[in-house]
Amino acid sequence: MTEVAAAAGLSAETLRKIETGRAPTPAFFTVAALAGVLGLSLDEVAGHCSLLPA
Fold first, then answer.
1. Which H/E stretch holds residue 9?
2. Does residue 51 register a pLDDT over 80?
3. How crowded is the C-beta side of 11, counted as CA atoms within 13 Å?
């Protein structure tokens, strides 16, 4: 986790907050940075978000 956070320019604590829902609406640029590090397109990320229950 620390490697992914560092590569995205985030702290490990910020990534932990996103994962646990304590930061439920991360900024667009945070999501874009994480997607890039993980090798995902923003279209893929958006597609997964639309599958989440309301």
1. none
2. no
3. 4
How far apart CA 41 and CA 17 sit, in angstroms, is: 22
Q: How far apart are CA 26 and CA 7, in angstroms?
A: 17
Tokens of 29: 């640029």
Radius of gyration of the chain (CA): 11
pTM: 0.81
Distance CA 10, CA 12 (A): 6
Tokens of 36: 């890039």
**Distance (Å, whole) CA 48 – CA 30:** 16
Q: Are 10 and 33 in contact (CB under 8 A)?
A: yes
